[in-house]
Every structure is written in C-alpha cells, then in structure tokens.
Amino acid sequence: MRNSIITALSLATFCVAPQALAQANYPTKPITLVVPYAPGNTDVLARVFLGQMGQNTKWTFTYDYKPGASSKIGTTAVAKAAPDGHTMLVVASTITYSHLLKNKPPYDWRRDLEPVYQLNRTNGILMVNPKLPVNSVREYIAYAKANPGKINYATIGNGGIVHIVAENMHHQMGVQVTYVPYKGYGNVTSAIIAGEVQAAHPAWRAFGSFLTSGKVRPLALTGANSRLAQLPNLKSIAEEGVPTFDNWSWTGIFFPGNTPGAIINRMNAEFTKARLDPETIKKLDGMGEGPGGGTPEEFRRFLNETSERLTKVIQDAGIELEE
What we know:
Layout lengths: L1 H23 L6 E5 L6 H16 L3 E5 L6 H8 L7 E6 L16 H4 E11 L1 E4 L8 H10 L5 E5 L4 H13 L4 E5 L2 H10 L4 E2 L3 H10 L3 E5 L26 E9 L4 H15 L2 H9 L9 H22 L6
Parallel strand pairs: 1-2, 1-3, 6-7
Antiparallel strand pairs: 3-10, 4-10, 5-8, 5-9
Helix pairs in contact: 2-9, 2-10, 6-11
C-alpha cells in the first residue's frame, strides 16, 4: 500500500512538473495582442497598459490587427489559438451579445475565452448640436416627445453597442428618435458639428476638444451617479430625470480557453501593477477613462451580468444585429 502511494505521488509530480516549469519560465517568446478592430481606438488604450508592462517586466508585445465582422474575425483567431499565454485578445462589449448575431460566430466566449483583466469602465456623454434648443436631459426628453422622430441620433453601425445603448436610453426616456449609422466616430464628429445629426453619446476620448470648444453641448453622463474630471459639473442621465439608466463602455483582455490559471493570474497581476503606475493613471485620466481592474473571476461575473442585460435590451427592442 505504501509503495502504491509513493508511486502515485511520483507520477503526479512527474505530470505536474513540466506544466509548473513552463509557467515559471513564462513567457518564452513575444506575446501577441490581437486587435479585432482598425487601429486608432481600442489599441490606443491597450498600448498604454502594455507599454508600462513592457517596462515593468521586459516582456515584448506585438500587435496583430484583424478587423471586421463585428470583431468576430480577430476573436475567432484567439479562440482557436494555443492556450499557452502567448496570444491575447482586446475586445469590447460586442463579445457579450455575439450569440445573438444573425451569422453566429464559431466560438462561445464563455467556453472558448478566458477573461483576464478589465481595462476600463468609461462614461459616454449625451451631447447635442448647439442649435438643438435643449440644455438639459429634461429639455431633451420634452423636445423629443413634442417632435417624435425628428432628432437624428448618431450610432456606430446598425445593431452595434452604441445603437443598443441608445435604444435602451430612449426607451427608458419614453421617446422616439431616428438612428443614423456611421462607420466610426470620425464620421460622427463631422456629422454632429455640421448638424446632420443632432445628438450622440461618445466618450471623452472621441469628442473632448469639441466639448471644450463649444462646438457640441454636453447634457449628461451615461454612468449613473458618476462624474468626469474634465467636466466636473456634468451630472448623469440617472440624476437628470431617468433614474434607472446606467451604462458604461468597457474594454477587456482575454486569453484562449483552457489557458492555465497560473498564467491568467500572472497576467492579471501585471495589468494591475501597470494600472497603478502614476504615469498610466495620468494617461488614462487624460483620455477620460474610468478604472476597470479586479480579478479574473470578478471580470467573468461582470461579463455574465452584462450579457444578460444586453440580451434583454436587444430582444425587447427587436434590434436586428449586423453580421
């Protein structure tokens, strides 16, 4: 019996040792961040973290852009990658309702991806063209009720997260507007300043200079009971007449499914360390990015709750999702 126990322990040690050794030596090559969007937006946020992490760890990071199909192309590549911690994904809210897309993706994010770290939680800013005769959320609601469908509201694509959030917001306001889809915030910028659309809700990062110059008028923040350092007196939509509305945009880091827990926790710790660096804090504050953070388990719970909420909004509003 004693010999059997010793043999079993020896076999267990033999099986575990290579995995433990591999994790101790991690990483063994450059780590690739797959970005399922075009350059210039989500990757900007990721580069702030990875730049600091490179300084802290001397690790090398590379970027692989795979835009298209509502982030499905890049996400699929990561879901199918080797679960060794050398391929990461940076992706936003679209992943949590990908199961509702007409052309369903060849992955299930709950099964095929491992949440690692939530980079941010960022406020949107409900803003209007200054020619729209409203100066508050209550006036916006009153005008929309008196002029149903006459406010042109900018979104990023039909059925994208911006559209979904806008549908939810206006449903809770009890008003109707006309949604006008654009390919990106650069197009939205031109459209709202020209008066082609009257309203939108981008983040500070996309519209900060236009808000401070008066070319657009901020009405409220999308995150309930929140504040933005750049606009300290601006209250939230919840405080300004729609108490049940609360929405934040977010971006997160994922590994392929079945990546060892030790590697996930190590990467989470490095992101956390980078987030606490004073230079990182300064850069993110300047971009108007709210803090994310937390453990992988906390991030997974957040994802599940977000998925349930967005699924209900999409189904209740009858939104047809692109792709």
